[in-house]
Amino acid sequence: MHNTVPVDPGSPALEVSARFAALSEDLLAEHDEAAVLRQVCERALEFVPGVDFCGITLRGPRRRLESACSTDPIAEKCDGLQRELGEGPCMEAAHDVQRMYVVEDLRADERWPRWGPAAVALGVRSLVSLKLSSETISEEHAPLGALNMYSAEVGWPDPDVAEIARIYAVHCANAVAQARQITGLQRAVDGRHLIGVAQGILMQRYDVGIDTAFEVLQRYSTTTNTKLRDVATQVVAQGGLPDQEPPQGG
């Protein structure tokens, strides 16, 4: 027999848990990656006490970082300066150097000698930067990017708020990972459909078989250094190959 500890329905811990459960439901119900990112950014101001502005930096191909969204021009500028100067907590979190960075007084922190003073000049005094990782949903272990929360006050956050920020980032990373998977699958389905339509157009216009039509699309994609999906888009839009030359059978 298991001993159970009674839970006070009005306890702050239970209230916080309920709020995070509702957050997860809301985020996981949204399947568009861009929409999830916007929600993550905007709701950080609601869920994490003391956040004045928030930004998300995503990691793209070849480890290149890009700003995905922000709640304020200051957050966008702070994130952009890190990429421009090649230093900052966001860059390190996004590249998996450390999972979480907490800076209670940026004026006294010497880890980023160029970015720190530039952020202070913009009005940032403290921050939390967290890696967005998705190990629970995706086998991809590389970070998705970083969630950056900024405050205009010195001494933020206290340990409890830092823990809330960490939990918030975990929920959000899982939602972003799921949305990315769904968005990617939808794009793949749409791409296959588009290529099929382009094949049909080539077959009808040039009186070739389905295999030859696909070979033509592939060859044009290779010789022009254009993605196959983009070639198919051009064929559908123009009713034939962009250069209007009849395909050679293969």
Helix percentage: 40-55%
The major beta sheet can be summarized as: 5 strands, antiparallel
Strand count = 5
- Please tell me what the overall shape is: elongated
Q: Which CATH architecture of the largest domain? A: 2-Layer Sandwich
Q: Quote the beta fraction.
A: 5-15%
Q: What is the helix tally?
A: 8
- Please list the strands of the largest sheet in the order they lie side by side: 2-1-5-4-3
Element-level helix/strand string: HHEEHHEHEEHHH
User: How would you classify the quaternary structure?
Assistant: single chain
Structural class per helix/strand content? alpha+beta
The overall average pLDDT, rounded, is 85
Calculate the terminal CA-CA distance, rounded to whole Å.
Answer: 73 Å
- Spans of at least 5 consecutive residues with low confidence: 1-7
- The tally of structural domains comes to 2
The Rg value, from CA coordinates, equals 24 Å
User: Could you say what the CATH topology of the largest domain is called?
Assistant: Beta-Lactamase
CATH class of the largest domain: Alpha Beta
CATH superfamily of the largest domain: GAF domain
Fold and architecture overview:
It is a single chain. This protein is α+β, with helices and mostly antiparallel strands and 250 residues long. It has helices at 12-29, 33-47, 73-85, 89-94, 115-121, 159-206, 210-224, 228-238, and strands at residues 53-59, 65-70, 100-103, 126-132, 145-151. The chain has two domains: 15-181, GAF domain (Beta-Lactamase, 2-Layer Sandwich); 185-238, Arc Repressor Mutant, subunit A (Orthogonal Bundle). Strands 2-1-5-4-3 form a five-stranded antiparallel beta sheet, with helices on both faces. The longest helix has 48 residues, at 159-206. It is elongated and about 70 Å long. The termini are far apart.
